[in-house]
Amino acid sequence: MEELEPLTEANTIETGVSDPAAVTRIDEEPLIGSMLSGRYLVKRKLGHGGFGVVYLASDEKMLSRPVVVKALLESEGKNEWTVRKFKQEIEALARIDHPSIVGIFDVGELPDGKPYIVMQYVDGFGLRLIITPEGVDFWRAANIMRQIGRALTAAHDRGILHRDLKPENIMIQTLGDGEEQVKIIDFGIARVKNSVISKSTASDRSVGTIAYMSPEQLSAGQLSQASDVYCFGVIAYELLTGRRPANPESAYQLLEMQRSGVRIKPVDLRPGLPQQADAIILKALSFDPKDRYQRARDFGDLLSSALLGDDEQTVLAGHPALANASERAEGTVTVPETAHVLFMDIVGYSKMLIDEQPACLQKLQSIVGRTEDFNRAQATKQLIRLPTGDGIALVFFGDPEAPLRCALDIAYGLKDCPEVKLRMGIHSGLVYRMADINTNMNVAGGGINIAQRVMDCGDAGHILVSKRVADDLMELARWAPCLHHLGEAEVKHGVRVPLFNLYTDDVGNREMPAKLRAAAPSLAPNRMARIAAAALGVLLIGTAAFFVLKARNGATEGAAPVVPALPERKLTYSLTVQKMREGKTDGGEIEMTGQEVFGNGWKFRFNIVPEQAGALYLLNEGPGPGGATEYNVLFPTRKTGSAAQIGAFEKVQTGWNYFNEHTGVEKLWIIWSTNPVPDLDGVFRDAASNKGVLAEAQIGKVQKYLHSSTVAKAEANKSGDATVVKAKGDIVVSEVKLSHKAY
Prior knowledge:
- By secondary structure, this protein is an alpha+beta fold.
- It has 4 domains: 34-120, Phosphorylase Kinase, domain 1, CATH 3.30.200; 125-192 and 207-308, Transferase(Phosphotransferase), domain 1 (Orthogonal Bundle); 337-516, Alpha-Beta Plaits (2-Layer Sandwich); 568-741, Sandwich (Immunoglobulin-like).
- The strands form 7 sheets. Strands 1, 21, 24, 26, 30, 31, 34 and 35 form an 8-stranded antiparallel beta sheet that branches. Strands 13, 14, 15, 16, 17, 18, 19 and 20 form an 8-stranded mixed beta sheet that branches. Strands 25, 27, 28, 29, 32, 33 and 36 form a 7-stranded mixed beta sheet that branches.
- It starts with a strand and ends with a strand.
- 40% of the residues are buried.
C-alpha cells in the first residue's frame, strides 16, 4: 500500500511536511526539476491551498539549503484579486521579523510572469497533528499558547491581521532537548493596513475557514485584532479539549451558536482544567469583540500562566487567584491518605564536581516537567513535588498508575541524556499532607519512606516497584509483562521488602540489582531452620486439606466454579473506497465492509469506531526489503499526535492508501485495549522516527500481542457497509485481510 497525504478540511498546506511518501501523486507538476532565478532547484510538491501551490526546493547558492517556494496556481494567474492578495502576502511577511512567524527570503517571477515567494522551510509538523481527544498536556499547551500570542501581536503591531488562523496554519518545529518552536504560516488572505499594493477593482471576498471564523468575520463586519484573538480562542479550546466549541452544519448556524455563547465549557470536557484557564478561554470567545482580550499576547500569556498554575500572573486577567503558599499551608490534611510515590535520585551525584551537580539536576527537572502525568497531576492539584537534594520525589494522589507511566516517560527522556544516571523507586502507601518550615506543602509517612527504601535497592537505570504496587498492577494486561519479581531485599532497620523490577525492551535495567546479588548466596542457619519448619507445616496442612476436600467433593461433585463474565468489547470498521481507472477517479466514494474483493490501484481509507473508550493500535503487515515481514504503523502516528487513547464512538480514519498493481492480499492488524499498553506505546513512538516502520528488534514484541491476546469475532453488519468486531478481554486483536485483483 502507498499512503497519500490527507488534505485538510480547508484544503490548505503544511509547509513543514518532510516525508517524501506524503506527496500527493495525482497532479503533474511542471515546475518540479526546474531552476528558478538560476538559484532555487524545485524538488517536489508539498501541497496546495485555495490559490497557491507550495514546493520544496534547495537554494543552490547556500549549500543546497532547503527552502519553500510558493507560486500561484495556473488557474489563478489572471485573477486580479488573487494576484493582489499574493503580493500582499509578500508585503506582510516582509514587514514581520519574529521567530514564531515563517520568514521570507526572496521573491521572483516565473517564466510566464506569475510571482513566486521563497520562504523558510520549517522542518516540523502541523499543530493539528498533536491535538488528541483528551487534549494536549498543560505544559506543552502553555508553551504553544504563549508563542502564538506573542507572534500574533507582533503581526498586529505592524498592521497585519492574519484572518485564517487555524491548526493547519501553525507549525511546530523541534529544536532539541524537547524544546518546541511555533511558526505561524500562510498569510495568503491577511489584511495589510496601509498596503503599498495598489487596491484591486475587484470587490473583497469573505475568506477564511468557517469553523474558526469570528462572528464579525462570518457576518462580513469590521475586523480588528480581537477577530484574530477569537480564532486563537477556538484553537486553544480545541487544543485543550480535543474538540471545537461548536460544530455547525452551516455558517449561518455557527453565527447563531456564537451569539448564544459557548454552551459546553472547556472544563466540562476536561475536568482537570484550571478554572482560571476555563474563564480566560471563554473571555476570548466572547461574541462582542469589545469583551475579548484586545491583544493576542495578553490572552496567550495569561492562559499559559493559568495552565502552569502561576497565580500571580492569572490574577492580572481579573480572575481570582488560588490560595497563596501560606494559605495552602493552612490546608494541611490531618488524616492519612493513600499516595502513589515515585522517588528518584541521580547515581553518583555526590562524586560530581560542584558546578556539574546543578546542571545535571536541571536536565532531570526538565525531563520530568515534560511528562504528561506530571503536568496532568499538577494541573489537577493531585501532585506534591519534593526536592531531595540529589533527586526528586513525586507524590501522586488518585491514579495508582501515574508514577509508573511517569517513570517510563522519564526513562525514555533520559535516552537523550546518557550522562544522567538515574534510579527510581515506586510505592503506594499512607501519607499525611503537611507544611514544612517554609510553609510549602510536604508529606510524611510510610508511603514516601518505603518508596525511598525501594529506590535505594536499585542501580542506575532501575525502576523498582514495591510488592503492594505490583500486586495491584499485575492484574492488568498492560503492566503484567513489564513487572518482574526479584525477591526480598533487606533495607533500613532490618526491614525486608519484596521487590519487582519494571522494564520493557526499550527502557529500564533488566539486570539484578547489585544489592540483591550480594545478598543472594548467604542464608543464615536460623533462617534455614525457619524455612524447614515452615515447609513441614505446609506439608501437614496440605495433607489435612486434601482429605477434607476429598470428603466434600462427594457432596459437590459436578458443581462448576462461578467465574465472573468479562465485559464484551465491540468496535466497527469499514473502508471508504474510491475506484480508480487509469489514475483517475471512477465514480463516487463507497462504504464497504472490507470483506469484498477490491481492484488493483483503487484507493481507500480505513475507518474504525469503537463502542467503548480505550487504546487503539493499527498496523499493516507485508513484505519488506528482501522479502522479510515488515510492519507499518497506521495509527497512532506522528500526524495523529501519537496518542493511542480514543473515546467511545469516536471515529478514527486513516489517510488515503492505494492497493498496489499486483493481485494479492493486504493484511491489517487491529489491537484494541482497555487502556494504553506501555510496551506498544514505546514501539509506536520509536517507529515514528523511522518513517512509521517497526524496527526489526521490535517486531517480536508486537507479535507477542498479536498472537497471545483475545482473538475477536468479526461479521458484517445488517446494512452490509461495515464489519462488527466483538470479543471479551482487556486486549483484543482482529486480523483484517483485504483482497484485491485486476478488473
